[in-house]
Amino acid sequence: MNVIETINLQKHYQIGDNSVLAVDGIDLNVKEGEFVCISGRSGSGKSTLLSLLAGLESPTGGEVRLLGQHLEEMNEQERGRFRRAHIGFIFQAYNLLPQFNAWENVAVPLEIRGIPLQERKEKSMEALEMVGLTDHAEHRPTEMSGGQQQRISIARAIITRPDIVFADEPTGNLDTRTGTEIMSLLTDLFRRWGTTFLVVSHDEDMHRYTDREIRLKDGKIEKVIVQ
Ligand SMILES: Nc1ncnc2c1ncn2[C@@H]1O[C@H](COP(=O)(O)OP(=O)(O)O)[C@@H](O)[C@H]1O
Ligand SMILES: [Mg+2]
Description:
By secondary structure, this protein is α/β, with parallel strands linked by helices. The protein has one domain: P-loop containing nucleotide triphosphate hydrolases (Rossmann fold, 3-Layer(aba) Sandwich). Helices cover 33% and strands 30% of the residues. The chain is built from seven helices and ten strands. It has helices spanning 46-53, 76-86, 102-106, 108-112, 117-130, 146-158, 176-193, and strands at residues 2-15, 18-31, 35-39, 61-66, 69-70, 87-91, 164-168, 196-200, 212-217, 220-226. Strands 6-7-8-3-9-10 form a six-stranded mixed beta sheet, sandwiched between helices. A four-stranded antiparallel beta sheet has the order 2-1-4-5, with helices on one face. Strand 4 and strand 5 form a beta hairpin. The chain is globular and about 50 Å long. The structure holds adenosine-5'-diphosphate (ADP) and magnesium ion (MG).
């Protein structure tokens, strides 16, 4: 089954006289459990494509279907609900809340769902265990290294066991060794669970972890490399 399908997907940005086709006619199919790396130079449209696929931004042309459902046929509220039920997101800059400690950050998706405190804490501790950070549960983001903060953001992304995880440059702020640890952690978990995984990176080595590399250039697919 195709978990992700796009048809002639486009995103056009207009700022004053400046017009950019950030995503320019992408046709993409991703199967259940597949790992795909989206590569290409800075400005090639990787982040825009990921935002369109995750329903964070709306396309100016074409279609996105996730798990057989058209994103553009949903209203804002339905899209939000669909995202929270099926999608996890990991960012380069971790995007943790500074006023919350580790387990509270991990629990945010459960809080949005109205799950009671005790259950939130238990589930967060389980997710922290999966990323090897139970001993940092009470630490705030500023008290942790970049690699530890990224583990917290991974725990937050997986706490709802999403069907699809999108990661935008998840190792971009990390040294090589920590980046390798983070990618091993992610791929081990997702292979075990059969999670569909799309990772954006301009790291040359990222293809080692994925089944297929899709290289973008000027918003178009330049090359597809099957590993
Ligand atoms: N919100 C935005 N408004 C205007 N232009 C944008 C916006 N986001 C991205 N772009 C433009 O779209 C192109 C692709 O950007 P992006 O998807 O961020 O590339 P990448 O992630 O590969 O570096 C770039 O030319 C960028 O300047
Ligand atoms: Mg980007």
